[in-house]
Amino acid sequence: MNGRMPPGFYLIIAAQFASALADNALLIVSIALLSEQGLPVWWAPLLKFVFTISYVVLAPFVGPLADAFPKARLMAWMNGVKMLGVVALLLGMNPLLAFTIAGLGAAAYAPAKYGLITEMVGAQRLVRANGWLEVSVVCAALLGAVLGGVLVNVGVLDKLHALFESGALDSTSRLVPSLVLLLLVYIVAGLLNIWIPHSGARYPATSLDPLVLIHDFIRANRTLWRDREGGLSLAVTTIFWGLGATLQFVVLKWAGDVLNLPLDQAAYLQAAVAVGVVVGAAVAGRWVVLHQARRVLPAGILLGLMMPIVSQVSSLWVAIPLLAFVGVVGGILVVPLNALLQHRGFTLLSAGRSVAVQGFNENLSVLCMLGLYAALVAADMPISPLMTLFGVAIAMAMAVLTRAAFRSAEADHGPRQPHR
Length: 420
Hints:
Elements: H1 9-36, H2 44-57, H3 59-68, H4 71-90, H5 95-121, H6 126-151, H7 154-164, H8 176-194, H9 210-226, H10 228-257, H11 263-287, H12 298-311, H13 316-348, H14 351-378, H15 383-413
């Protein structure tokens, strides 16, 4: 079979990379804004919380929205909404409110992005396509964390601020030039979206009645959870993305409390996890095919057990390879199961609706885990026991899912016959 991707696929990857790069850098810059304004440290995870809440609240509507319009065009529009969030920060709006605006754009961007790839590549190339996409997502997280660290570095800010000191955007915040640069990155992402060709997929028109859309979403959510392969992969990716979002802040706090690193250097440490995920995603995209997706489930147990180990490390040079290994395991786990979930969702529902259901569940997990993390940090729980608590809970949940999956596989093949 021809392994080449269809025209426009790599444009999707490039557009997604630019948009996610700005998202991740904006998070670091916004954390610095909170610090600049003297707000408490437990507000930092709330940035991700308000960004993510749109995924949950808007889930019944963004799937039909993604199916109603050419998805590349919708992605360009949603980049515009993210830009409004940056403009709000430039105008002095509270970072939590501005991040909520950016989250509105991201919530509709996700089903358009994943749905477009599902429409374009077909089931045979979906794991490979997801490998490309996850590498793009994680490279954006890696470079976005680095870019964010650069943009909050005191020396870099001195140079950037001098360029704008006499301009119209001069204000009391030293981070204004950093926000302007991120606005330019979002503009680039929007231009890339415009050049992506339409996949040609068409879906029946649906009612715009909110009650009808909510009822349809509830039915779609139930359908995917009740499907054996869809429910399994949805459970795993829901746990993974909740952990991944929380891990962003865990690494930042752990690097500050245990390794005594400032925010800009702690942001660079996130890059170790991201590099590992890139490697793991590439390995999975190359060597794991769709029908073998459940074989990677034990990696989830290992992922959870790594957290208590990392929490006991106090050396930067030991921490870096351990965090990279955590990323490798995560990449190997999520890419095949994400592809399986998209395949089952596309088969049972539609590209946009299945990704909206996926986004609802995964981001509800993000909200719950971030809320728990913020509460524990506000209660002054030390970071090492906190990491151990999260890791053990994840390992236990993944062990239960792995056992159920392998029991189901054994049932499919029937009882083994004794040798005669």
